[in-house]
């Protein structure tokens, strides 16, 4: 059943992977959705499926999130239409495996633009609205790699470390304003990320790989519960504890072996 309140869930990177699963799980809750990505055809197919199955309102926004002006225009369009974003899912991101010096600098800077700059701009715009209403929820999709620098994922792991620490700080800053900020730190998941990042799938990674459904469900539960962060999956939690409890040279060596780099 569709909810009657005038609140919407905005999901970036909604055309595949975690973004698509967030859309399905929030639609099952009856939430109105704003789906944002570059691939319009995939967004249109997904939106039609969600409308038919769950009877929810779905807006499709084709936006290049690496462009800050495009993000500002998105916020303006939604404001002019009276679309109130109560939940912001900062999911869009890009990764690439390989030695830093062997990658074109444009690719590295592109990761920073999408994973850091656009996420920061989206958060600034929509969190300002939430603070004015004294109500809102923001989920930052970070990564297990945010907890340590990982060989051959130098820029990506650093970018996700920014997302995690940015989220941690905002969790405390905005709590008194009625805005919940939570970081989701997934490990290896079957989302298509490995293919797009040209990542080597080692036997160890295949063993710990999670499906998107439980990862997304864990993120939604943590956000609704007002938690600061969540690491889904027992194996991923164990890696996080190992990172906290051991010297960097030790756990980074283990992670490099697991990642096959």
Fold and architecture overview:
The chain is of the alpha/beta class. The protein has one domain (8-259): Rossmann fold (3-Layer(aba) Sandwich). The chain is built from ten helices and seven strands. Strands 3-2-1-4-5-6-7 form a seven-stranded parallel β-sheet, with helices on both faces.
Layout of strands and helices, then pairs:
Blueprint (H helix, E strand, L loop, with lengths): L7 E5 L4 H12 L3 E6 L2 H15 L3 E5 L5 H13 L4 E6 L14 H29 L2 E6 L12 H22 L3 E6 L8 H4 L6 H6 L3 H14 L3 E2 L3 H12 L2 H12 L2
Parallel strand pairs: 1-2, 1-4, 2-3, 4-5, 5-6, 6-7
List low-confidence stretches.
none
Helix/strand order? EHEHEHEHEHEHHHEHH
What coarse outline follows from CA principal-axis ratios? globular
CATH superfamily: NAD(P)-binding Rossmann-like Domain
Q: Strand tally, please?
A: 7
Specify the CATH class: Alpha Beta
Average pLDDT figure? 89
Approximate helicity band: 40-55%
Structural class: alpha/beta
**What's the CATH architecture?**
3-Layer(aba) Sandwich
Distance between the termini: 48 Å
Q: The CATH topology, please?
A: Rossmann fold
Number of helices: 10
| Gyration radius over CA | 18 Å
Which strand order does the major sheet show?
Answer: 3-2-1-4-5-6-7
List keywords for this structure.
Rossmann fold, SDR family oxidoreductase, alpha/beta, 10 helices, 7-stranded parallel beta sheet, 261 residues
Brief overview:
With 261 residues, the protein is an alpha/beta fold.
